[in-house]
Amino acid sequence: MTAPLALDTDQARTRLPQLTVVDVRTPGEYASGHLPGALNIPLDQLRRALPALREAADQGELLVVCASGARSESACSVLAENGVPAMTLTGGTQGWLDQGHALQHPAAGARATWSMERQVRLTAGGIVLAGLGLGRLHTGWRLLSAGVAGGLVFSAVSNTCGMAHLLSRLPHNRPRPADLDATLAALARRSGERAESTGSAEEARRATDVSA
């Protein structure tokens, strides 16, 4: 599989006004801080958003972001399979923050939560400790810890994470239907504005050519 095109943080910052930025993290992660102007479409809702994203890509470039870059690469692969070109942000939102660039925060009352990576570490560590503790009662419980260890190795090798996929389905990580509908409406509105702006610029160019 061909790796998606990528922008580093400085390139993304320079081109940000011309980009449509889609944040594929969970709503809670998005609420903890995101790139300025980014719209939240969680990875597991991406296919529902394909028509709006295809229209946005027709009017300009799409930049997909997540926490570190892994989920955004997966999202770009899904988009590419459906004929929607998109780029990923190297290092993700954390890389953006590490470079000293500011994050935007939603209005007060948005439900912020831990990053998915942090949730995975907590869950995996908790299961391993539970397996070791219960293993003192019966050695069979130690297989629970071994299973988590094997899952983490597979996750690293395949660059996927089944535990993150399961955790993303928990209520605090899922968007309310109205939230996603509002995001898709905002995405369509931006696409329309860019199409209108492009049309106006083309008309002005033609008028200049005629007068010349």
Please, could you describe this protein's structure?
The protein has 212 residues and is of the alpha/beta class. Helices cover 56% and strands 8% of the residues. It contains nine helices and five strands. Helix 4 links the parallel strand 4 and strand 5. The chain is elongated, with a radius of gyration of 21 Å. The chain starts with a strand and ends with a helix. The model has no long low-confidence stretch (mean pLDDT 84).
Radius of gyration: 21 Å
Order of helices and strands: EHEHEHEHEHHHHH
Query: Helicity range of the residues?
Result: 55-70%
For the residues shown, what is the average pLDDT? 84
Ranges where pLDDT stays below 50 over 5 or more residues in a row are none
Profile the largest sheet. Answer: 5 strands, parallel
Strand order of the largest sheet: 1-5-4-2-3
How many DSSP E strands? Answer: 5
Query: How far apart, in Å, are the first and last alpha carbons?
Result: 49 Å
Content-based structural category: alpha/beta
Beta percentage is 5-15%
The DSSP helix count reads: 9
The general outline is elongated
Task: Summarize the topology.
Layout: E1 5-7, H1 9-15, E2 19-23, H2 27-31, E3 39-40, H3 50-59, E4 61-65, H4 70-81, E5 87-89, H5 92-98, H6 116-134, H7 142-158, H8 162-167, H9 177-211
Parallel strand pairs: 1-5, 2-3, 2-4, 4-5
Helix pairs in contact: 3-9, 6-7
Describe what is shown at a glance:
This protein has helices at 9-15, 27-31, 50-59, 70-81, 92-98, 116-134, 142-158, 162-167, 177-211; strands at 5-7, 19-23, 39-40, 61-65, 87-89.
